[in-house]
Amino acid sequence: MVSKRGFGGMTEQQKSEISSKGGKASHAKGTAHVFDTDEARKAGRKGGKSVSKDREHMAEIGRRGGTSRGKQKTKEKEESDG
Q1: Whole-number Å distance between alpha carbons of 48 and 50
Q2: pTM of the entire structure?
């Protein structure tokens, strides 16, 4: 049996509290990284290129979006007719 030690044995709240303390400490120390607009844009493009390489995954995203949009339109129509 594997024992859960460290972060694996903590609740989500405990993990969040520890992470928050670390973030506050790094900002206070001046070593925290803060994305500027251009850097964030580049990171987003890089992630988008990586995800879009998986054509099957992208097709699934498109199907879900189309299904969701169709359900929304049907609901709006029913509300306006009723």
Answers
A1: 5
A2: 0.40
DSSP, res 48: H
d(C-alpha 52, C-alpha 60), whole Å: 11
Q: What is the biggest distance separating any 2 CA atoms in the chain, rounded to whole angstroms? A: 60
**Predicted confidence pLDDT, tens digits, the chain (82 residues):** 566 788 889 999 999 999 999 999 998 998 888 889 999 899 889 888 887 888 898 888 888 887 777 777 777 777 777 6
Q: Are 79 and 73 in contact (CB under 8 A)?
A: no
Return the structure tokens found at 24. 């506050």
Tokens of 69: 């949009």
Question: Could you tell me the two tokens for 68?
Answer: 């969701």
